[in-house]
Amino acid sequence: MGKNNVGDKVQNKQVMLRDYVTGYPQESDLCISTSTIKLQVPQESNAILVKNLYLSCDPVMQFLMRKDEFHMSGYYYYTPGSPINGYGVAKVLDSGHPSFSAGDLGENYHLWATRMEAYLDASDLWEAVEDEYVIDPLPDNPTLAQIKNHKVKKQRKSKAKSYLFSAVSEEIFTRIMTLKSAKEIWDFLKQEYEGNEKIKGMQVLNLIREFEMQRMKESETIKEYSDKLLSIVNNVRLLGTEFSDTRIVQKILVTIPERFESTISSLENSKDLSNITLSELVYALQAQEQRRLMREEGTIEGALRAKLKLNQGHKGENKNAQWNNFQKGESSNKWSGKTEDEKTNNPPCQHCGKTNHPHFRCWHRPNFRCNKCNQPGHIAKFCKNEEQPKVEAQVANQNEEEEYLFAATCLSTDKNNKNWLVDSGCTHHMAHDEELFKELDKTIASKVTIGNGESVDVKGKGVVAVKTLSGMPGITAYAGIFEVGCLKKGECVFISAASGAVGQLAGQFAKLLGCYVVGSAGSQEKVDLLKNKLGFDDAFNYKNELDLDAALKRFFPIGIDFYLEQVGGKMLDAVLLNMKIHGRIAICGMISQYNLPYPETLENLLHIAFKRLTIKGFTHRDHHHLYPKLLETVLPYIRDHKVVYVEDIVEGIEKGPEALVGLFSGRNFGKQIVKVDGE
Length: 679
Prior knowledge:
Number of strands: 19
Oligomer: single chain
Largest sheet: 6 strands, parallel
CATH class of the largest domain: Alpha Beta
Strand order of the largest sheet: 14-13-12-15-16-17
Structural class: alpha/beta
């Protein structure tokens, strides 16, 4: 899509999923779809029309393309014929939302400048912007090396200028198009939108005045109030002024309403308030807020039975018989939350031919044995070779009228009958906020009976769109090193898949803390990248190592203090042999195991006990609250060129399938990005 105006009809290309994927995705599993759209949001709508500029390829996408029994909560799964969506960078073309406007750069200059500087630096073009170097003319009879060097320097200046031209709106482009160099363009935009030190000082003063005037309203939640304060503070920090979290903590403590006095008193008795972190304070206040809400609105807590009666269910089954079956322990799709169709959606098992389980869970696998009798064909629970307690057959009934759900916590609101029931523990989930739904069918009517016998009407059924923060690799790397790993200066750190989006940042963070860092990668080019550009102390190509244990002993003769695990299998087994006593392992992925029919056996698990190791799994989803800390920590290092972020960029939406598939064969260097449009 080239240059277009609002209201134009244009072609819109999307990468679509052909069918559910088994194993690693292939290019044949994806296709490009072209449709026509109008570049305009509906009148009286708060919708936003954006144009994708860059799209991110992430390993987690392969799981979202599958039709597995196990689904990760909080993710939107793709279905055949649906577009592949993910994180990215987009430009607003039209907006009915008051917080967004088309082509508005001025208010976001500091964010734009930080991202642009990082992008130019990763593209090895920042030198052309920062320094106005002169390209000397070629001498008579130049050598091939001189010709090549002259061409590279000239291209760098031209590319940097082109990237800056393409990163601004048309209105701003008309003001900078006559400038001759990338440095002139950068300096002009900096002067225009950031101003001189005096103007920046006035902006900081206004922001601090706004911060000091804030008081929490009775109608506000702690999250809303803390987010508002952080938004102001982050703008101050972007202008180059330091602003500590301690000051935010003090502000919250003296400006929250009287209803939080009991929590503050409790914190005074149990903690030193001068050392309490912002996240600790917010969590404590949110906990009291939640308890108060539950008391005021008629809370029902515990493992409560909820009965969902769907109008579209089957008729004729006796309800008392259903409850009796449940009390006897029988399993049906009303207890598990799965319909009969959902239980038979697997392809025929290659071992037994049945469709009610995936092949890797089949009892008839060649290498599967009962733990009690060592015979194939059954599990220990149903072993007949020893005296076993009688177990009733668990039957999946086909014709059911009702569905039963277990809820860890149910909140029933008496004050406002328009609110929906919130259930955080069921296969079927209920939400009180209609705006959370991406798709909602209001024609489906049903009732939910909770544990106290109270009935609640269900007004519709649909798909919920969950808002998440961007920057998944950054959050994962930051959490792994600073929160989960808790690294100390001088420790020995090993990072597998170190040239990937997470590994490259994690290694640099560990180096900033004064650690000895070694990474593994899958090619010599990636090894060179780790050592020469990303600053790792050493690195090795695991594909060239016949003995991973010997390789690790070569790089860690005294052992490993901390290991960031992203590979699994043989690599993890070798690491266990080389961990120090009381070492730590943080696991955020095991890419070598994702698509194996039978997971690899680990032989060295006993070292976990002998060495008293600490092993913790984590994902970015548990650490979104760290995003402000990530920016505060990393942005100064990026500005000082102490942290480098490598991106592997392919151009054109048509290259999207190839780029995504390339993740799983190790073709990418760093973060895989699809450049959709250079505008």
